[in-house]
Amino acid sequence: MAHSRMETKPVIFCLKTLLLFYSFIFWVTGVVLLSVGLWWKFMLGPYMLLISSAPSNAPYVLTGTGAAIVLFGLFGCFATCRGRPWMLRLYAAFLSLVFMAELIAGISGFIFRHEIKGTLLTTYSDAVMTYDGRDDRSLAVDGVQRRLHCCGVYNYTSWFSSVYFPVGGVPASCCVSLSDCSGADLKNATLAARKVYKQGCYELVTSVIESNMGIIAGVTFGIAFSQFIGMSLACCLSRFINANQYEMV
Questions:
Q1: What does this protein do (predicted)?
Q2: How far apart are CA 212 and CA 122, in angstroms?
Q3: Which of 8, 40, 159, 176 places its Cα 20 to 30 Å from the Cα of 196?
Q4: What's the structural domain count of the chain?
Q5: What would the DSSP string read from start to end of 210-222?
Q6: CB-based burial label for 155 (10 Å; 0-12, 13-18, 19+)
Q7: In sequence order, what DSSP letters do the residues of the chain get, joined into one string?
């Protein structure tokens, strides 16, 4: 029996080392998801507001999942060092839950990016038509036009039929140069054409969202499938400890 324990010591030490290394990588993925969630909230927020009338919960889900992974990554390191089978099984169970959550999130993100164009065209056109320069959607439109150097839905002429044009003309956020863009110019369709961006925002916004959603979905899928490694290591180490009644301190 003592000889058997001596033989399994190197195996357990190897599994413990691998699981510790994995737990550290798992912790890093939590930091990555946390960062992606915050980036989505602050960088893609204006675009998402133009797709849906209500704010998206997706960045909060990613941020919350990332924070939970950070905590359980630390727990995984602790469980590995302590070598308690019940802790290792709990860690493996959590990894399986994270795998399912991330897989669902990744599939949803992948599907969502292919449904963007139709929804965006309707909501963005409505945001332009009802623009008043003050509400959240109007501010989102201004932010998009400044950031992407575009104007209107297909081009600047989209503004001519908006409720805002008779009062304020084309929004100042369309101006190529604010110093050379007066209020009178923006109310004159002929003069405005020389002062504002020519390209429409619809195609640009669609491209930005689709490319970024693809990155988010890819990162989520990659992290999700890495959970198999952790689950296998945790379960294997737990079985070895149980089978050999070996406790690590």
A1: May be involved in cell proliferation and cell motility.
A2: 21
A3: 40
A4: 1
A5: HHHHHHHHHHHHH
A6: middle
A7: -HHHHHHHHHHHHHHHHHHHHHHHHHHHHHHHHHHHHHHHHHHSHHHHHHH-SS--SHHHHHHHHHHHHHHHHHHHHHHHHHT-HHHHHHHHHHHHHHHHHHHHHHHHHHHHHTSHHHHHHHHHHHHHHT--SSSHHHHHHHHHHHHHT--SSSSGGGGGGSSSHHHH-S-GGGBS-GGG--HHHHHSHHHHHHHB--S-SHHHHHHHHHHHHHHHHHHHHHHHHHHHHHHHHHHHHHHHHHHHT----
Structure token digits, residue 166? 């008779």
Q: Which residue segment(s) compose the domain that 128 sits in?
A: 1-247
Output the pTM of the full model: 0.58
Rounded Cα gap, residues 61 and 48, in angstroms: 15
